[in-house]
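Page 37, continued from 36.
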């Protein structure tokens, strides 16, 4: 397999697995138990919290462990809505958000919340003036993703955060695609909350976190033993937490190295693909994640191309919605028509890709695209 679908999920780094192993075998004690075995696992959780906080310049007690970004998004968005409904019932988000945000917002609409789904420009970027015009007296939250999972477009997070701080509105960003890839400083940007998932940064699936700034109060969605400051009851997933901690430490240490390597591979692939006639890049070229390229192959059905690629894993649309036969909402939002959206493929690279894989992939894609077009 040549795996070029790292925005959907990543393999586990061996060093992460190694750090987790004791907690999947001999060190299985409940981190809430007061015996010395529980204290040992509790110490491991504490260390992971520090490793994670360190990566985004947060305090360890601002990290709430969850099952992943989707759960973090639900806890925060629903929590803010419940907590602030007397203050206002207006929420602002973007048309290009992940379904986890869009569907949570749609759910909140059932309870009288009004949601503005702001348009973005043809590169996928939010214009700050559009945001400014959308803010109302009853706006309680702005929710804007940092890096887009489909096209890689990066939002002007600092500007958005400045605007929401100025207006005294909470700001949440879905940082799932940027966490561990670029420098995040929650204090430099006045971010109130953000989310991420372990499995996008070489840790396992089913573990993630919510960063919640000290002083931001929201009710819990799950009740029970009062874990995670009462925000998320349920016995801690110690092995997953240790894995997320280790992956965060490695991401910080190797961030530049990974970026240099992956960006070179992405640029090589992209340059080659663009030499195929009638191809174009979707989204921003300048403000973009270094591992992602989304390419439109005119007159080539992306499902057929994916099937023909067999042992090469790429994607169209986000994996969560791939079973729905509808064009990517992100590509539609940046101005592609349905036909163009169905002809687009996302290549998302990771630290285990090699130049040989890129060369093999390119040759094969070039051949298949040519064949497909000859059959037209
Ligand atoms: C993957 C992803 C999510 C969802 O993460 P889960 O681990 O499936 O909960 C949310 N937002 C973005 C931008 C993602 O890439």
């Amino acid at each position: 397999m040549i795996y070029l679908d790292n925005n959907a999920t990543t393999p586990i780094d061996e060093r992460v697995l190694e750090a987790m192993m004791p907690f999947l075998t001999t060190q299985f004690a409940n981190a809430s138990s007061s015996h010395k075995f529980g204290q040992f696992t509790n110490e491991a959780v504490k260390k992971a919290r520090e490793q994670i906080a360190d990566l985004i310049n947060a305090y360890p007690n601002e990290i709430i462990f969850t099952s992943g970004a989707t759960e973090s998004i639900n806890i925060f968005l629903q929590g803010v809505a419940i907590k602030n409904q007397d203050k206002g019932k207006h929420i602002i988000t973007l048309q290009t958000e992940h379904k986890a945000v869009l569907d949570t917002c749609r759910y909140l609409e059932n309870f009288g919340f009004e949601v503005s789904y702001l348009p973005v420009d043809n590169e996928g970027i939010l214009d700050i003036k559009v945001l400014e015009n959308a803010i109302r007296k009853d706006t309680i939250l702005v929710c804007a993703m940092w890096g887009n999972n489909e096209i890689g477009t990066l939002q002007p997070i600092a500007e958005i955060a400045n605007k929401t701080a100025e207006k005294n509105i909470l700001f949440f960003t879905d940082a799932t695609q940027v966490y561990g890839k670029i420098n995040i400083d929650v204090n430099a940007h006045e971010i109130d909350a953000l989310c991420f998932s372990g499995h996008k940064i070489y840790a396992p699936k089913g573990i993630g976190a919510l960063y919640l700034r000290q002083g931001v109060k929201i009710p819990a969605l799950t009740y029970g033993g009062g874990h995670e400051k009462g925000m998320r009851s349920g016995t801690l997933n110690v092995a997953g937490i240790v894995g997320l901690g280790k992956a965060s430490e490695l991401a910080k240490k190797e961030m530049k190295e990974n970026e240099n390597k992956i960006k070179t591979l992405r640029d090589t692939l992209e340059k080659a693909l663009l030499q195929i006639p009638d191809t174009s890049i979707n989204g921003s070229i300048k403000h973009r994640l270094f591992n992602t390229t989304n390419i439109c192959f005119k007159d080539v059905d992306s499902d057929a191309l994916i099937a023909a690629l067999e042992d090469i894993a790429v994607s169209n649309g986000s994996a969560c919605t791939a079973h729905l036969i509808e064009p990517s909402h992100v590509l539609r939002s940046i101005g592609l028509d349905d036909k163009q959206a169905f002809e687009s493929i996302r290549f998302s690279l990771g630290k285990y890709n090699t130049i040989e894989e890129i060369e093999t992939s390119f040759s094969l894609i070039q051949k298949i695209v040519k064949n497909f077009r000859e059959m037209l």
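Residues 7, 68-70, 98, 100, 145, 149, 174, 176-177, 197, 199-200, 208 surround pyridoxal-5'-phosphate (CB under 6 Å). Flag for discussion at group meeting. Residues 14-250 form a domain with the Aspartate Aminotransferase; domain 2 fold (CATH 3.40.640.10).
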